[in-house]
Task: structure prediction
Amino acid sequence: MPDKLLIFDTTLRDGEQSPGASMTKDEKLRIARQLERLKVDVIEAGFAASSNGDFECVKAISEVIKDATICSLARANDRDIARAAEALKPAKSGRLHLFLATSALHMEKKLRMTPDQVFEQARLSVRFARNLMADIEFSPEDGYRSDPDFLCRVLEAVINEGATTINVPDTVGYAVPELYGHFIKNLRERIPNSDKAIWSVHCHNDLGMAVANSLAGVKIGGARQVECTINGLGERAGNCSLEEVVMAVKTRRDYFALDVGINTQHILATSRMVSQTTGFVVQPNKAVVGANAFAHASGIHQDGVLKARDTYEIMRAEDVGWSANKIVLGKLSGRNAFKQRLQDLGVSMDSEADINNAFIKFKDLADRKSEIFDEDILALVSGESVMRDKEQYGFVSLSQHSETGERPQACVVFTVDGKEVKSESDGNGPVDASLKAIESHVKSGAEMVLYSVNAISGSTESQGEVTVRLQNSGRVVNGVGADPDIVVASAKAYLSALNKLQSKADRVAAQG
Ligand code: KIV
Ligand code: ZN
Result:
């Protein structure tokens, strides 16, 4: 009988640590629901003690998600652990994830603690946590660069205190597959009580080997949990990508001989939701979820695929949620057809009011664009569209004039706390003029650190999806806007980023 490989998703915790990827509570809730639909085993919902905002996110996710274990990260101290346990109280199944660095470098330079002090703190923190919750994960941070003898001592002690999962992070992405696999194997063989815990891998992608290292940890090391994120989002170069690791284990079941519980048909919708929420665009040649992942350009390949699909395809596109990109709906489609399509795409809305709101936007789009693709619908229902009434700034309308040889002018109408304002400016181009018009009224003072445009579907009739990254007082946020008119998409993206700056400022203020 094959074993089960547990999928621990940390998009909402480690993924959110990417500069600019911070998410609001509503956005995190939507992604958590999507992860539940995807059937991940564990959702790491945040780091409850890090801010009141994170505490509220972990609590809210614990209240609504029933089919996955909800986990909160905590430093290995009583205050953090108690706070995480409090946030997890409503969870049907909760997990405390404690971490403490064990590498000589981290202990000496960062923690300024001796190995004996770290050993004691690790042991006592797990003892404390175990009195609050049965499901305890322990991570020796920078584990892969730690002295194996010391690591064995610490891990044996925390398992004795009741840790049920032992996660071995390659925190800085330094590992190579064979060595990492044997590192885990060696720990499991040397630690006398290692069979009392599930072993887990957590790999960062600094050298582009996070997925390979994780798989080696599974195959050679015997780990039975992989920590990963949607689209490989995460600190610096990111984490192990969920879609890649899952499809590798499924496609090469002959080699791994493991079951994974993931409903792979929801992979693409989840990837798009995370990309549109964070503004982190998926590269076209990204495995599994990139736009070209199943596209065959060369004549020889096309010919082969037409004759027998498996000549050049090792996975079926529909198994990970790709449809034939057919026209799904048009302006005559009704609310029921729209609702059904949302369900087929794996998008669930909280209430009939949200569906109505999205349907109005769909009708508006269908008036301006004759063919509506799945990608358009996913863009429509992504974070920027549905939560509008709770936000400080909202787009209303825009007009602009540009002519060769003349400086473009724009006039933007938008709402500030529900009240309409109108603002005008000129600029280097129509996009520049429109964003300057908004900024001249709002006076956020934010610096734009990224502006990018991406066509949602193939043709010039496509909606443009714009990402704007703003930085202000050390805070970095991404705003995303979609519209067939890229100037309008840009204004929407800018307003969405301003809303996030505001909401992040509220979260930071709440900590004080
Ligand atoms: O990369 C890391 O070491 C982590 C731990 C907190 C698990 O994210
Ligand atoms: Zn990490």
Summary: The CA atoms of residues 63 and 174 lie 37 Å apart. The chain has 18 helices and 16 strands. The pocket of 3-methyl-2-oxobutanoic acid (ligand 1) is lined by residues 14, 73, 99, 139, 141, 169, 171, 202, 204 (CB under 6 Å). The two ends are 53 Å apart (CA to CA).
